[in-house]
Specification:
Blueprint: E1 2-8, H1 14-22, E2 28-34, H2 45-50, E3 53-56, H3 59-69, E4 77-80, H4 92-101
Parallel strand pairs: 1-2, 1-3, 3-4
Helix pairs in contact: 1-4
């Protein structure tokens, strides 16, 4: 079973949406986190260690993750989805984007 971590800034809109969308998929476990220290679920080394694949929403998230967790990322796949912070939780457009982009990497 693959473990998939979705990461955005605050863990309020995009990454929780992704977690919700893929939570019912077979053969994957999902979680989400935020790069900001005041995120609902702040990203930490334990989450990085847990994940097989880490999806970040923007290049700025990728840069933060690479800078802060470089050693923990060895052997991990880090994928940037390039999804801007323009969507509310479970926005139908965001859901469509996630469903169109994430599966090809799983």
């Amino acid at each position: 079973m693959k473990r998939v971590l979705f990461v955005c800034s605050q863990n309020k809109l995009r990454s929780p949406t992704a977690e919700e969308v893929f939570s019912t998929w077979e053969n994957i476990e999902v979680s989400s986190a935020g790069t900001n220290h005041d995120a609902c679920n702040p990203l930490d080394d334990e989450q990085i260690a847990w994940a097989d694949i880490i999806f970040v929403m923007e290049k700025s998230h990728r840069n933060k993750v690479l800078r802060k967790y470089k050693k923990s990322l060895i052997g991990k796949r880090l994928i940037c989805l390039d999804i801007p912070d323009d969507y509310e939780f479970m926005d139908p457009t965001l859901v469509r984007i996630l469903e169109a982009t994430v599966p090809r990497h799983l």
